[in-house]
Amino acid sequence: MTVFKALLKVLVFGGIVLFFAGCENAALVASYTLSFNGNGANGGNGPANIVISGGQYATVPGRGTPNGGLVKTGYYFKNWNTSPGGTGMTVRPGQSVQLNSDTVLYAQWELGSADKTFWVRDLSDNWYTIEAKKLGEGDKCIVYGDILESDAATTENAASVVAQYETSSGIYDKITGTFGDIKDVDSNGKVIFLLLDIIDGYDPGAPDGGYVAGYFDPIHMYINSSYSNRADMLFLDVNPGEPDYTNQESKTFYSTIAHELQHLINFSQTAAASPPKAEKDIWINEGLSTGAEAIYDPLDKSRIDYFNNDPVSTIAYGNNFFVWDGYWEQEYGDVLADYSTAYLFFQWLRIHANGTEIYKDIIAHQSGDFNAVLASAKLKISSITSSWTWGDLLRTWMIANAKNASTGLEGYKTELPLSPTVWSMRAGSRGGKSWAFSPGEGIFSEGSTLPGSNSGNIEYQQITGSSYSFVAGSPPYTSRSLVLTYNVNTNYRGSDESGYLTSVQDSASRSAGNYSPPIKAPPQGPYPVSFGDKAAGLDRPAGGRTGRGVAIPGDKTKQVN
Fold this sequence. Notes:
Blueprint lengths: L10 E3 L2 E4 L11 E7 L12 E4 L3 E3 L15 E7 L8 E2 L4 E4 L3 E9 L4 E6 L5 E11 L3 E6 L8 H12 L4 H9 L11 E6 L13 E3 L1 E2 L17 E5 L13 H19 L12 H15 L5 H8 L17 H6 L2 H18 L4 H8 L5 H11 L9 H14 L17 E2 L7 E8 L4 E5 L11 E6 L3 E4 L6 E2 L3 E6 L9 E7 L23 E3 L1 H6 L18 H5 L2
Parallel strand pairs: 3-9, 12-13, 13-16, 14-25, 17-21
Antiparallel strand pairs: 1-2, 2-8, 3-4, 5-8, 6-7, 6-9, 10-11, 11-12, 15-16, 18-24, 19-23, 20-23, 21-22
């Protein structure tokens, strides 16, 4: 993650300045020592002293070695503090500190012992273990909490998790009733939830604000895997995730449970099934999980708001869910456009299929790619015939986003508060401008004639006789013609192909990948993303590439979300 010199919040106490991420050093003054006191420990040596120049930053030993091997019989390590009695400033393992004087950190101990040890991995694919306490249990779940996160991983918050998961028509009933059963790997009839601070590079001072709210890792479904916890389980973030259900901000926390539970069910019904089926492509898996969010909380319109606002202006330029980690994500970090368009696509399927049964059909299909969606749409949506292709489905959905008609397939039947916006491309030079389209991408441009003929995977469709709200100009324009140029390649790993627009905003050609969209305002955090998105490089800065090559998501991106 990009490191910034200035942070929004700085805490100063007893000669130590706390940051949650490293920063550039201030002026060098003198050398100071950060030392560690066992504070009653009867075993281990503790972390080595850290000597740094005044104004520079040192990182307290983090996960894997939080206390440098210190032990105290009958107690477990909790955190560090600038006071032996814990009345000073608490310093969490992994925090960066700036010294203004020699400083001693004292180990803080809690009476008792951990109940269970879990394998966890960070976004750099490093494995480490977490000592956890059992905080709560219900009929369908067990909640554990990292003992180093005792401020958020509490019995009270665990009770909220159990209640929201197991209450009548709660998360469990809604999500399993829609998507299917969970494979019970550990034969206890319960899903394990682990509350922890997911090491995801989250920086409260950075403008992007992306953090991993939770994840499902299929490795734990394999009994013989080296790092497997041998359990059906989910990992839930408590920094900055908020599990306290009395807090309005906690809605994201519980939507995350619904989202990740779908991933667990999806894996249970595909790769872990007997006999196994093909795992679903990432856009299908994530799209179904956004459907799970809507089932849990149908009043949450954040995905729709993101589409309507298009804050990074990549949706108007064709960015959508089909190529999950492609050009727009790598160059502009706009993975939230993937989530918002996937949400809309799977809501469009649900609305026209008259229910969520189509989701279960998609999971049950033997194919892991677009065929699962196309076949399920033909089965469940009466107005879609057997002759439809993937291109027909994709084109109709794109037109629905522009028209949002109240009836028929070219809209959402008034169910969603969609503000149809398309980039009119009407300014600047007109006619025959080349543009590079990744598989699944489509762009609207204004014109009364097609700028080209169908070629390869590039197709064209004229749309007339309706009102549209253009990003450029003063909306609405009534009965103006639009042309949709789109790529129907069914292989999300396929190469870009050149299509034509009727007009563009300036004379730049997109074929060389040298056009930058006018970013209106980057999204403000904190906002949740999937484990795979962060691992794949959500925070990549703009620039640094000369072409429109499409990245192929790695195994972790496809499997850990």
